[in-house]
């Protein structure tokens, strides 16, 4: 969304695509789960009176739009990319099949996983955790507009305290909101670390992949 009130910022898409392309060229296997809040957020729609299941399906379709935008940007940079959707729409995306997704990654393709889990009442955070387990990812990288996890919203409270590292249990006990509890619990049960970092700073995706101490690490 960038600085816009709504929709897709071409500049942001190009920036993210360029960083993902560089990782791909370095041989890093990248699977991406994209949210859809810049177009339609299911929970927000349900609060306006839309049936929750219908609202969540609208949000899933928004993630497909974002996924196609990123795929287009990557392919214009000569990076092989596949969009795989949890909701079948064969004309524009492959259906998500676990073994096929792993095969795409092994062949050096960027895999964009669209439509969340395909089920209402689950967020894209939970989709990221689930897909990460399925494709045997080493880590989840949660890109946000802030540079880690804070005890309160740093965009509202300038005195908010940043955590360099948190355990899963501490995250849950503190009731922190940057990721939903289902996703955190799933990662805890499967010992999958999460790194929350600032996606808006140029070069941060590469920095976090190569082990620089940025953002907040959530693990056991």
Which secondary structure elements does this structure contain, and how are they paired or packed?
Layout: H1 10-25, E1 31-33, H2 42-47, H3 52-76, E2 81-85, E3 94-95, H4 98-106, E4 110-114, H5 124-134, E5 140-144, E6 149-150, E7 162-163, E8 165-167, H6 168-174, H7 181-189, E9 194-198, H8 204-209, E10 216-219
Parallel strand pairs: 1-4, 2-3, 2-4, 5-9, 8-10
Antiparallel strand pairs: 6-7, 9-10
Distance between the termini: 33 Å
Helix count from the secondary structure assignment: 8
Q: Main β-sheet, in a few words?
A: 4 strands, parallel
Strand content: 15-25%
Strand count: 10
Percent in helix = 40-55%
| Helix/strand order | HEHHEEHEHEEEEHHEHE
Give the low-pLDDT segments: none
Shape: globular
Count of folded domains? 2
Across the major sheet, the strand order is: 1-4-2-3
What value does the Rg take, in angstroms?
Answer: 17 Å
CATH homologous superfamily (4th level) name of the largest domain: Acetylglutamate kinase-like
- The overall average pLDDT, rounded, is 94
CATH architecture of the largest domain: 3-Layer(aba) Sandwich
> Which fold name fills CATH's third level, the topology of the largest domain?
Carbamate kinase
């Amino acid at each position: 969304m960038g600085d816009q009130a709504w929709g897709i910022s071409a500049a942001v898409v190009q920036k993210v695509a360029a960083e993902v392309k560089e990782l791909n060229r370095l041989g890093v296997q990248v699977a991406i789960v994209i949210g859809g809040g810049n177009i339609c957020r299911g929970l927000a729609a349900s609060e306006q009176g839309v049936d929750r299941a219908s609202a969540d399906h609208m949000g899933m379709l928004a993630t497909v739009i974002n996924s196609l935008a990123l795929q287009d940007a990557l392919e214009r940079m000569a990076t092989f990319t596949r969009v795989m959707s949890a909701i079948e729409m064969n004309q524009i995306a492959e259906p998500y099949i676990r073994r096929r997704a792993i095969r795409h990654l092994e062949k050096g393709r960027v895999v964009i996983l669209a439509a969340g889990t395909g089920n209402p009442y689950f967020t894209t955070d939970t989709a990221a955790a689930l897909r990460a387990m399925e494709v045997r990812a080493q880590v989840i990288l949660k890109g946000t507009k802030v540079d880690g996890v804070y005890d309160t919203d740093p965009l509202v409270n300038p005195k908010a305290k940043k955590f360099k590292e948190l355990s899963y249990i501490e995250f849950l006990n503190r009731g922190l909101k940057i990721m939903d509890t289902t996703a955190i619990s799933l990662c805890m049960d499967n010992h999958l670390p999460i790194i929350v970092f600032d996606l808006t700073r140029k070069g941060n995706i590469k920095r976090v992949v190569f082990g620089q101490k940025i953002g907040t690490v959530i693990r056991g």
